[in-house]
TrEMBL record, chains A, B:
This is Putative competence-damage inducible protein. Signal peptide: none annotated. The gene is cinA. Belongs to the CinA family. It comes from the Bacteria.
Length: 415, 415
């Protein structure tokens, strides 16, 4: 069962709005085992839309259109699909009644265009619109591609997908198997290295599949299995997850699409009742702001320092001027002093420090992207680590924050 | 000149990420008069990608692919387009040097996959990647459709579109008439109020057009004119801009798509040699981090305080405990003390302070979103202002930062 999504609308095509409906529909279809191989966006143009439908039919069993079911002149999807299928449009009585009742209740005079929204393709199954008037269609075709017509406004479209389309497709037996997936998140390892470590697993993947994805300063793997039910899919996924963890477990920090390193680290700190502070130079508060975004952080984070200028490092953190003068502000010694002093002044269990060159210009003869991150942990000797980041000021700062979070994560893993 | 965008990537196809690159590219092409009639998304599958390219060529003069230029096995776009065009892949020397230099600087052993990113299609114009390693291509084809290959990660793709692709297309004369646009940025006024103030201008717009767009805590207007050349377009734009400024000039803070309130404010501070600091509670460093992102800020920003817990306000800023106890931590008095003390301790011309309820829970009986922002400016009596923000922790914090920047902007406008 191969499906293709065709989104209709000039606003989408010109980039004035993003095609979030298409992304959602693809996800929901994947979950019931319907493969989406193509998505197309075309404007409100009858000739080009019909051309797109012909291409779609030639390569897909199910064509799902989104948009163009509304009341205005340029809403033409239903008319074009019906003509293309050689079927007339007929009135859906339930949809018509809903429109009439609305008109009666509000005392509005509805135009003939409103009635247009109650039309459906003859022989199609109607898909009720729970958030609007335009009725959707599921046209099952034994001779060629089947068609689904969905409305464009996201509130209408998503509700129709969930409540009408997916249940109908399941009922029609368009569900071979269950798809289930789990996202694994990694920090401190590049995409190429991770893929290299797992190359045999990835190369021989059939079920589950492993899809790597590089994000800012981290890599995710999406492990997806298909099976007869959720339990079997989970068992398959867990098997592969275990193999991956056996090889690169030290870089793994958590599961989930919406998870983040800051969430994981802050929640570990809260759980273990370890307090944290920071002294930030090049990151200028970005580390503290990032942990500050996690609800509940106030239990472990009293506050900290932004010491951008050298005199602030001296003045706020009492770092001896000789250290900065002799070792340089971007140095192991300064990073260690910053962490040590921040921890002492805020009386926390942990302190991290950031000193480096955000760029674009170099500093003390060191190139943009050179960053020292210090960490002081309880009674241990504080340490600092050297990093080289690239790709501009914003990335250098953001990657520094991720690296600082990762240093805390590593400390918590060891202890 | 009809263009088609082909986005490549299974994650896009399956709806795990939205096709924001495609939307952006369509917008930028429209601005130089290149019509996008189709957008297609296809997975990392060689056969299906080649099929999509054949369809695209049959109906478009320019085919722009996004994605699949990375180092992994499933990054195959360049290989497939090159084979399809009958051209070999050759090494782009500048891109290769950049990768080698990175390897040398970081001491990392790069895999052969990394070198793959420096390949370009023979006879193509290279598009430099300012945020990554994968080089892009512009392949001008007299016999058939021309091709553009762009990388998938948004930071790389958007920068390449702006700095490389659009200038190249303009240079190649892929421009029928000139479209020129200017973005005006407003703070402190809502979209509906602004649109209402300008309703007659917006309703009668033909050339230039005025397109409002609401962003987080600000509103932009894009004024777009078409004309025979840039000069004529600019004259048309300036006429409308003047009318808009006459009505709502007090909310206008700057021009440009990539501009930000932080950029404008920091550059004004630098120009006028006024130094700034901050004491942040609920924003936890986000204000300082935001101004810290503007290159050159070190000239006016020595550093500051993150005083998340009450004891930090007392300890780091020497705010009398009685003020916090009697007035509350989320209060006018505390905000004023925070600004006054931060200014005194850092010896700056200006200090802003943030104290409030980020949420999700209430604090001191005050609901999430209640925020006091203080400002101390030179010898003036410090003041604090009350705000009520909505839409969750992240928005409350981000809107607070924007409001703090706007307070500084207003001070600089008066003085």
């Amino acid at each position: 069962m191969n499906a293709e999504i065709v989104a209709v609308g000039t606003e989408l095509l010109l980039g004035q709005i993003a095609n979030t409906n298409g992304a959602y529909l693809a996800q929901k279809l994947a979950e019931i085992g319907v493969n989406v191989y193509y998505q197309t966006v075309v404007g409100d143009n009858p000739k080009r839309l019909e051309g797109v439908l012909k291409v779609a039919e030639s390569r897909s069993d199910l064509v799902l259109t989104i948009g163009g079911l509304g009341p205005t002149e340029d809403d033409l999807t239903k008319q074009i699909v019906a003509r293309h299928l050689g079927e007339p449009l007929v009135t859906d009585q339930a949809a018509k009644t809903k429109i009439d009742e609305y008109a009666a209740r509000t005392g509005k005079n509805l135009t003939p265009n409103n009635a247009k929204q109650a039309l459906k393709i003859q022989h199609a199954i109607s898909l009720t619109n729970h958030n609007g008037f335009a009725v959707g269609d599921l046209y099952l075709n034994q001779q060629g591609a089947s068609y689904v017509l969905l409305p464009g406004p996201p509130a209408e479209c998503l509700m129709m997908i969930d409540r009408e389309l997916i249940p109908q497709l399941k009922k029609q037996g368009h569900q071979n198997h269950v798809f289930s997936s789990r996202v694994m998140r990694f920090i401190g390892i590049g995409e190429s290295k991770l893929v290299d470590d797992l190359s045999d697993l990835i190369d021989h993947q059939t079920n589950p599949t492993i899809a790597p994805y590089a994000k800012m300063a981290e890599v995710t793997l999406r492990v997806t299995a298909s099976a007869v039910d959720e339990d079997h899919a989970e068992t398959l996924i867990q098997g592969v997850v275990n193999q991956i963890l056996a090889r690169d477990g030290q870089y793994f920090y958590g599961y989930g699409d919406d998870n983040s390193l800051a969430d994981v680290v802050v929640n570990q700190l809260i759980e273990r009742q370890l307090s944290v502070t920071a002294a930030e130079s090049l990151t200028a508060g970005e580390f503290q702001s990032t942990i500050g975004n996690v609800p509940g952080v106030s239990a472990v984070f009293p506050g900290g320092f932004v010491t951008y200028a050298n005199q602030a490092k001296h003045h706020l953190l009492s770092i001896p001027q000789t250290v900065i003068d002799n070792q340089g502000v971007v140095s192991e010694a300064t990073a260690i002093w910053m962490a040590k002093q921040a921890k002492a002044k805020m009386k926390t269990d942990i302190a991290v420090s950031f000193t480096g060159v955000a760029g674009p210009d170099e500093l003390e003869g060191q190139p943009a992207g050179t960053v020292w991150i210090g960490i002081a942990y309880r009674d241990e000797e504080p340490k600092a680590y050297l990093y080289h980041f690239t790709n501009g000021r914003q990335q250098v700062r953001a990657r520094s924050v991720m690296a600082g979070l990762d240093l805390i994560r590593q400390k918590l893993t060891v202890h």
